[in-house]
Amino acid sequence: MSLSTTDRQARITELVRPADGSSQPWLCVLDDGSPWFVKFPGAGPVREALSAELVANRLGRLWHLPIPEPMPVLLDSSVRRAGTDEFWDVLAASVGWNLALRSVPDAVHVAPTLHLPKASLEGILGFDLLLANWDRTLQSRNLLRDAADRLWWIDHGICRFLHLLQIPPPNALPANHFLFGATDGLHPLPLPLPSESSVRAALVDAPNEWLAAIGRDRASLTQELLGYLRPRCLPAAPGGSALGDPG
Q: Could you tell me if residue 68 is left (phi over 0), alpha (psi between -120 and 50 degrees) or otherwise beta?
């Protein structure tokens, strides 16, 4: 099992319950007692998708967008298994690095028919266009609302930007995006260019095998990300909140 370069190696200690989602995430408890939702590569999301979600969420948080904190976490074979025989197979195939997303307390999925504020729509439009997120559909907008009525953006493993680093990024949404054909009067939120040190820090704990799955190392991915973002972002380092502090 290859490790990331950081000394922070959070581990899963308890499997609590399954959660909604096509990637079959579970609510888990880590070794510090905190609850996180975990996506297991053995359940379907390949390491490329885990890499995309880790990087997309880290970039989103650099821009102070309402996106849950991501973190690679270790699963070892000593964790008590739960669920069906099929899920035991999932766990066996997921020993090693998995992707954890910090739990948003009392959050519920936003109904497809719920009207959203213009500022939220423009933020989503800016983020999804920039990172080529095609997984925010009419059927599932991948948005949560917490007990304080705050919106959270989730599920960014289908963001295509890692496949577009060497070609011009898209300038239109796909036809299945919930905002497709509904952007009249909306202006994508302009996002500032992160500093090189911020991007490097965002990748510091990316597991080596995830980077290998996309054919890059940290140094090359840092430079390619900056090259991808530079013509599409405001020429300034992030400072202050775009849509509120993600907490």
A: beta
